[in-house]
Amino acid sequence: MPSTAARPPKVQRWIDLIAALLRRHYPVSFDDLAKEVPAYLNPKQKQDARMRMFERDKDELRELGVPIESVPDEHGALNQYRLKSRNFYLPYLAVKESGTTTPPKPKKKATGMGYQSLPTLAIEPDELAMIGRAASRVQQMHHPVLAASVATAMRKLAFDMGAVEMGAREIILPPTDRPSVTVLEALDQAVRRRKRVEFEYWSIERNARGRRTVEPYGLVFKSGHWYLLARDPEASTAVRHFKVSRIKDPVVNSAKAQSADYEIPSDFDLWSHTATQHAWELGDGDAVQVTVRFDRTDRHAAVALTLGEAVADDADCRVFRVRRSAAFARWMLSFAGAARPVSPPEMVEEFRELARATAALYAEQAS
Prior knowledge:
Blueprint: H1 10-22, E1 28-29, H2 30-34, H3 47-63, E2 69-72, E3 78-82, H4 85-88, E4 92-95, E5 120-123, H5 125-140, H6 144-161, E6 165-166, E7 171-172, H7 181-193, E8 197-203, E9 208-222, E10 225-231, E11 239-243, E12 247-252, H8 270-275, E13 288-294, H9 299-304, E14 309-311, E15 314-322, H10 325-333, E16 339-343, H11 345-366
């Protein structure tokens, strides 16, 4: 993640704090935690100011669902803190084999540290089938928000179970692709030191491989995938999203190892930049402006009219910046005719082809 020497981003403090708590199985004081959270050791701040920062971080993390406990010391003062891994991580999920009475053992050997000490939650086959049917029924409602939430939930199930069937159509969601740990470590090093990195990248939009040299701004985990946010100086000034699982052989610039190769703009905030991104906005290609007309009599389309950018003199149209046309076409198709692209012609034709192929698929299943 991008950082400055003066004040690291709040999300970086949160991650450092959570990591420091999860490393321990016993309550720990603020002074001990501060040794692993650089933001709490700023010599320009007084002890009281650093303690107030910690209290704010702790309260905000609790509001987000992170169960940080305050534990009394031997004198009864609540000045020690603990985060139990079993309360923080979700358990492993597995389907119970027919005829078994005990849950299957976890794939990872329990070591008592972090997520590797988690138990396995066994799900009965009929329970899993019910979950799949329910997810399929929700997607048939064509609600853009609910459909996306269901797809995310099923990906989480598939991550542990390998695949999940969704209703009678037997849609299989494969587990998410996992990037190489070596690649992630190299990219993390480049981000922290603000060094250019060169790598081989497969661009799915162009279906081509090539070498890229970029200036990394940060790493984010979104929708079950790791992305590198970086600027490609040879392409444009815009920040692009490179899927880490498609990156191979990264080489971090070793020249002037103690000096940064570039500066991250002061107005760039990694947290806010990624929080507002939709699936069709994630990609390494140039963004294309797509104009879509919505039928505001449809309640789902009326909600979608709040997205994108307004079009002058046409309240039923919105403009979207699209990097992944296939993902955007699928999103429009979910409105069942209440959303149609107006321009550019390439997007109009791609949407029509997708609609024809989908109609043909349903006709074949019906017959």
